[in-house]
C-alpha cells in the first residue's frame, strides 16, 4: 500500500508539472527603486543572489521584434562542395569560418545604433537603469579543409555571433589567432614578439611577411571560390551590415538580452521618459508568465528600451558576468606538451581531424611519447604540426563560477553559499562527451571510442568569445570527425546554456553522449519527475534497467547508458532533472533551440529535432562509482585518459596514485576494492570515505546527461544549409542552497521555486512602442504547450503501469 501511495504521489506531481500552465505562481518580488546615474549590478539585484526561479530567467528578443528599430540582416551563399574539403579528397583545403558570400539586402529602414540602446524598469514612481546587452549575429560558413575528415562536411552554414569588441562588450574571433611562432621566416625586418603565444596577425609590413609565410606553410588557407574575400587576420570580423553602411545598425537577427528579475511595473500613460533618452522612440517589453494564474489572467512585468547618447551605462566591466582568460590561455600546446601518463594529456587520438596548425610550441614534457623522443627543453621553441592554444577560462557571476581548462574541458562549477559572496566547493568532476560508446572498455564498437579529452579537445578550435553586461558567450568549433560540430556556451547571472549543433556522419554502435559527472561528497540527492522525494547519490545505482555492461549471450563488455522507464520519463526534451546537496543545487533541462537561434526567418518552422532522420534522445542517470568511463577527475583522477581500464598502464597508474596517497607500498591492483559506502553508512558522503578500498577509481557519481541514438546522417546531406542536423540546448540553473530540496516540482511553483518551468513554460514577450495602447496578452506558442499534450498522453499510461505494478 505504501509503495502504491508513493507511485500515485509521483504520478500526481508529474501531472502537475506537465500541466503547470494552470498553476498559480508569483513572477518575482517587486524590485526596490533606485536612481543612480551610473548604476552597478548591485544596485539592481542587490548584493545577494536571486532566489526566485522566474527572476533568474533571461529575456532575449530579436531585432525583428522591434521593426521600427531594425533592418534586414545580411543573407549568405555558401561556397559549393567540395570547397572546404582537404586537397587529398579533391577539395580546395580552405580553412575559414567565412567561406561564403554575404550580401546586404536593400531596406528602406535604418537600424538604430546598438551601442545607443539602454534599458530601464519603472518602479512605480521613478526609472532605474538596468543591464542590457545587444549581440549582433550574422551567417558564418564553416570550412575546415585541414581536417582529414572534411570530405564529409565541406562547408556548413550557421548563424553565430559577431565577436568584435564594442562600446559595451569585449571579445575575440579566436579561430583567427594562428600567428606567433610561424616557422621559416628569415626576413631581417621581421621580429616575432612572442613565438610561444597565439595571436592575431601583426599590423603593417611585419604582418604581411608572416601572413605570406603562414599561407606558404598551410597555416592559413584562404577562400578560393570567386567573390569570397580573404579573411582579415588582424581582427574580428564585424557584422556585414555595419561594414556595408559604415556604422553599426541593429539587424533582424541580432539579439537583445536582459534579465527577468530586472523588470518592473508598467509605466502609466503619460509617464515621461527617463532623463537623457531620445524622445518618442522608446519600446515597452511586456513579459508574461504563462503559468501565473488559473483564471485566465496573467502576471506581467515590464522592461523599457530607450535610445540615449552613449547607450547603456552597463558594460562588460560592471555587468553580471565576468570571464577571465587563463594565464596560459593563448600558450601554444600539442600532444607532446604532456606526459603519456598525465591525467591532463590531450590530442593523442585521430590527430589529423583538427585544424592541424603548424608552427612553434614552447611546452614540452620530458617523457613525451614522440618517436623519436623530443629532446627540446621545456620552455624552448620547437616545431609542431598540430598545435592549439589551451583556451582556459574562468567564468564568474554573483551566483556561480565555472572553470574550463580548455574548449571541451569544463572542470569546475561552484555555487555561492546562501546569503554570502563566497563560493562553495567544486560540484562537478567533468563535463563529458562520448561517441560510439560510453566506455573505452567496450569490445563491440565498430570504430573505437571517442571522448572530450584525448579526442575532441585538440581536434577543435575556439571560434570566438564575447562578454557583455548581461552574458558571456563562447563557441567551440570541431569535435574529432565532427569537423563542423559546434557547441555554444552562454553564461548568464543565474544560469547557463550549452547549445549543440551536431553535424556528423551516421554513428554506430551506441551513438553520442553528453553528460555531467559529479564529485562524491559534494552532491547528495537526485530528483526527476518520477522521484519528487529524490534518491540518494552514493555511488550505487538505485535502478537496474537502462545500464548495460555486457551483452546478454556472449557477455562481451558493452557499456550503454539509457533510460529506465520505471525510473524516469524517457524523453530528454522539457524533462527537468536536479542534482542537489549542501553546497548548491543544479537544475538541468534539455530543449530544442529557442526561436532566437533559428538560422533564417524562412526556416523558423523547420523541425530542429527531426525524429525522421535523427536519433531518439533520452535522459540517462548512472550512479556507479565502479563505472570507469575512461576520463574524469573524481573520486580520483583517471590515469592514462582514454585507455581501457584493463590496460596495464591504467592499472599501474591507479596503484601509483594510491601509493602516493597513503596506501601501503606493497599494494597491487587486485587490492583496489570498489565498495562505496551507501546512504545508510556513517562514512556516506564523507571525504575520508575515498580510499583505495572504497572508491579507488574514477567513477560515475550521479552522472546524468543525454544519449543520442543515431540512425542517420546529421551533416546536412553534404549540403551547406541546415536540413537534418541536430540542434538542441541544455539549460542549467545553479541555485544557492544549504540542503537538498526539490526545485523542479510544480508543488513548489507557488513559492516561485520551480526552475523547470523556466524552460518547459518560458516567459513570453511582446514589444510595443512606448506610449502605445496596452499590448494584448501574448499567445502561448505551440512549443510551450507540447508538455501539456505529452502529459495528457504519457501520464495516464504511467499511472496504469504503476497500478499494475502495485496490484
TrEMBL record:
Residues 1-36 form the signal peptide. It comes from the Bacteria. Keywords: Membrane, Signal, Transmembrane, Transmembrane helix. The chain crosses the membrane at residues 780-798. This is Uncharacterized protein. It comes from Candidatus Aeolococcus gillhamiae.
Amino acid at each position: 500500500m505504501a509503495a502504491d501511495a508513493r507511485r500515485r504521489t509521483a504520478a500526481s506531481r508529474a501531472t502537475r508539472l506537465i500541466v503547470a500552465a494552470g498553476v498559480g505562481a508569483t513572477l518575482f518580488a517587486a524590485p526596490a527603486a533606485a536612481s543612480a546615474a551610473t548604476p552597478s549590478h548591485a544596485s539592481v539585484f542587490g548584493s545577494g543572489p536571486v532566489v526566485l526561479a522566474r527572476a533568474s530567467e533571461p529575456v532575449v528578443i530579436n531585432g525583428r521584434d522591434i521593426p521600427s528599430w531594425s533592418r534586414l540582416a545580411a543573407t549568405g551563399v555558401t561556397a559549393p562542395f567540395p570547397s572546404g574539403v582537404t586537397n587529398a579528397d579533391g577539395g580546395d583545403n580552405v580553412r575559414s569560418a567565412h567561406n561564403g558570400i554575404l550580401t546586404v539586402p536593400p531596406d528602406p529602414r535604418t537600424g538604430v545604433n546598438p551601442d545607443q540602446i539602454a534599458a530601464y524598469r519603472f518602479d512605480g514612481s521613478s526609472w532605474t537603469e538596468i543591464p542590457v546587452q545587444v549581440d549582433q549575429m550574422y551567417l558564418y560558413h564553416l570550412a575546415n579543409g585541414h581536417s582529414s575528415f572534411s570530405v564529409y562536411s565541406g562547408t556548413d552554414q550557421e548563424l553565430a555571433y559577431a565577436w568584435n569588441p564594442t562600446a559595451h562588450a569585449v571579445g575575440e574571433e579566436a579561430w583567427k589567432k594562428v600567428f606567433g611562432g610561424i616557422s621559416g621566416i628569415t626576413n631581417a625586418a621581421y621580429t616575432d614578439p612572442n613565438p610561444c603565444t597565439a595571436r592575431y596577425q601583426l599590423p603593417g609590413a611585419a604582418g604581411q611577411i608572416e601572413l605570406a609565410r603562414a599561407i606558404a606553410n598551410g597555416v592559413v588557407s584562404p577562400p578560393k571560390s570567386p567573390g569570397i574575400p580573404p579573411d582579415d587576420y588582424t581582427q574580428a570580423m564585424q557584422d556585414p551590415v555595419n561594414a556595408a553602411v559604415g556604422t553599426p545598425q541593429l539587424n533582424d537577427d541580432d539579439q537583445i538580452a536582459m534579465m527577468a528579475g530586472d523588470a518592473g511595473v508598467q509605466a502609466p500613460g503619460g509617464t515621461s521618459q527617463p532623463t537623457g533618452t531620445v524622445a518618442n522612440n522608446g519600446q515597452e517589453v511586456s513579459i508574461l508568465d504563462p503559468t501565473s494564474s488559473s483564471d485566465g489572467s496573467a502576471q506581467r512585468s515590464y522592461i523599457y528600451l530607450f535610445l540615449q547618447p552613449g547607450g547603456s551605462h552597463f558594460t562588460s566591466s560592471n555587468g553580471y558576468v565576468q570571464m577571465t582568460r587563463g594565464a596560459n590561455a593563448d600558450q601554444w600546446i600539442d600532444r607532446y606538451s604532456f606526459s603519456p601518463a598525465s591525467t591532463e594529456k590531450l590530442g593523442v587520438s585521430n590527430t589529423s581531424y583538427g585544424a592541424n596548425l603548424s608552427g612553434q610550441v614552447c611546452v614540452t614534457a620530458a617523457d613525451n611519447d614522440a618517436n623519436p623522443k623530443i629532446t627540446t627543453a621545456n620552455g624552448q621553441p620547437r616545431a609542431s604540426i598540430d598545435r592549439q592554444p589551451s583556451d582556459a577560462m574562468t567564468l564568474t557571476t554573483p551566483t556561480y563560477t565555472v572553470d574550463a581548462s580548455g574548449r571541451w574541458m569544463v572542470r569546475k562549477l561552484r555555487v555561492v553559499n546562501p546569503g554570502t559572496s563566497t563560493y562553495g566547493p567544486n560540484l562537478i568532476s567533468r563535463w563529458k562527451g562520448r561517441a560510439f560508446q560510453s566506455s573505452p572498455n567496450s569490445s563491440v564498437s565498430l570504430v573505437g571510442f571517442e571522448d572530450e579529452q584525448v579526442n575532441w579537445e585538440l581536434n577543435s578550435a575556439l571560434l570566438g568569445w564575447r562578454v557583455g553586461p548581461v552574458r558571456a558567450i563562447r563557441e567551440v568549433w570541431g569535435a574529432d570527425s565532427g569537423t563542423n560540430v559546434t557547441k555554444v556556451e552562454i553564461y548568464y547571472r543565474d544560469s547557463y546554456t550549452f547549445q549543440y549543433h551536431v553535424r556528423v556522419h551516421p554513428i554506430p554502435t551506441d551513438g553520442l553522449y553528453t553528460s555531467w559527472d559529479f564529485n562524491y561528497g559534494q552532491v547528495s540527492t537526485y530528483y526527476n519527475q518520477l522521484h519528487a522525494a529524490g534518491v540518494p547519490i552514493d555511488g550505487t545505482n538505485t535502478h537496474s534497467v537502462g545500464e548495460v555492461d555486457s551483452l546478454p549471450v556472449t557477455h562481451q563488455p558493452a557499456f550503454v547508458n539509457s533510460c529506465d522507464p520505471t525510473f524516469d520519463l524517457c524523453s530528454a526534451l522539457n524533462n527537468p532533472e536536479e542534482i542537489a546537496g549542501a553546497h548548491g543545487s543544479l537544475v538541468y533541462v534539455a530543449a530544442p533551440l529557442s526561436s532566437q537561434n533559428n538560422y533564417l526567418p524562412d526556416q523558423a518552422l523547420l523541425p530542429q529535432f527531426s525524429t525522421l532522420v535523427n536519433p531518439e534522445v533520452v535522459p540517462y542517470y548512472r550512479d556507479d562509482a565502479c563505472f570507469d568511463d575512461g576520463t574524469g577527475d573524481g573520486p580520483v583522477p583517471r590515469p592514462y585518459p582514454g585507455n581501457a581500464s584493463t590496460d596495464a598502464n591504467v592499472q599501474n597508474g591507479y596503484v601509483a596514485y594510491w601509493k602516493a596517497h597513503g596506501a601501503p607500498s606493497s599494494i597491487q591492483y587486485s587490492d583496489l576494492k570498489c565498495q562505496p559506502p551507501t546512504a545508510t553508512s556513517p562514512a556516506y558522503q564523507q571525504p575520508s570515505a575515498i580510499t583505495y578500498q572504497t572508491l579507488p577509481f574514477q567513477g560515475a557519481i550521479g552522472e546524468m546527461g543525454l544519449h543520442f541514438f543515431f540512425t542517420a546522417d546529421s551533416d546536412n546531406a553534404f549540403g551547406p544549409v541546415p536540413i537534418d542536423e541536430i540542434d538542441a540546448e541544455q539549460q542549467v540553473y545553479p541555485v544557492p542552497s544549504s540542503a537538498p530540496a526539490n526545485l523542479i516540482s510544480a508543488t513548489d511553483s507557488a513559492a516561485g521555486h520551480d526552475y523547470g518551468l523556466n524552460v518547459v513554460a518560458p516567459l513570453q514577450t511582446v514589444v510595443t512602442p512606448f506610449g502605445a495602447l496596452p499590448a494584448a496578452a501574448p499567445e502561448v506558442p505551440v512549443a510551450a504547450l507540447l508538455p501539456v499534450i505529452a502529459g495528457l498522453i504519457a501520464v495516464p499510461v504511467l499511472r496504469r503501469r504503476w497500478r499494475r505494478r502495485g496490484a
